[in-house]
Amino acid sequence: MNIEELQQTAAALMEGDKGLLAMDESLPTCNKRFAEAGIPQTEEYRRKYRQLIVTTPNLGECISGAILFDETIYQKTDDDVLFVDVLKQAGIIPGIKVDEGTVAMPRSPSEKITNGLDGLPERLSKYYSLSPRFAKWRAVITIGKGTPTHENIKANTQTLAKYAALCQQANIVPIVEPEVLMDGDHTIETCRHVTEETIKELFNQLKIQGVNLQGLLLKPNMVIAGTDCPVQNSTDEVATATVECLLATVPPEVAGVAFLSGGQEPWEATGHLHAMHVKYEDKLPWPLTFSFARAIQQPALEIWKGRDENVEKAQQMLYFRASMDNLARRGEYSVDLETW
Known about the structure:
The chain is an alpha/beta fold. It is built from twelve helices and ten strands. The chain has an eight-stranded parallel β-barrel with strand order 1-2-3-6-7-8-9-10, surrounded by six helices. Strands 4-5 form a two-stranded antiparallel sheet. The protein is globular and about 50 Å long. The mean pLDDT is 97.
């Protein structure tokens, strides 16, 4: 394990006002989004879409790292250039999703646990040789009647910590993603309680596994009421609850925090990140940025629709959304800038 390399990679991922682009959708998720947009659900169309993303002009101005899916690692542009090489030429560090999805938890089937530890050391070694220098593992925490259970939180955070330790042994920076889902009618207070419990247990497990926090990134949810909750909080309330939750749970040594968008509308996620920096910039012990997927990609996907003639306009939208998130990280975003 090369601690210096890990810390340098983590610092580069959190550089300046940049953030991470999550383009690591599983095949079922990608195909579902394609179906909704009327795009054929084939490997070639997935390649075309990912080509659209990685070849977006000036994307490296906004994005420091891109999280890829296994299929994407081996895909090439029309000019026979590997996508990972296109990203590196743009100054973007390639990363890789390494978990293998969720399954129902034994004795609590409404909760999920994440698979993928079997054979992970070998896969990480292979990925390192193919260019990725960071990885991501997502755990899912569900708020509902009687959930989450402590057993589910502990099982998911133990697995996240084991994954993180294996990544660092392979000189790959781990992103740990304990996502408390927005689905449900829970209040923002309930989300904060569950998120705090989850993150506290996560760092407890990371300590047990001996993970170096300066070579690790946290990818949490924002603290927000459930989508079916009758009370939807203001932007400032979400920003306050989120940052106060993180300040209470995340050690200052952590290399950085990069939020998932979790199903928020793009301008909502951007607005929340902006408010956090406006209210708390001088109180943050770690860099705070974005690691959005749909909040950056979805508007571009809806423009593209699988048609070559729409590529340029879709790329302009992709860049626009990423640039809005850059402004948010600097605390300079305004909804008035949403002029697209």
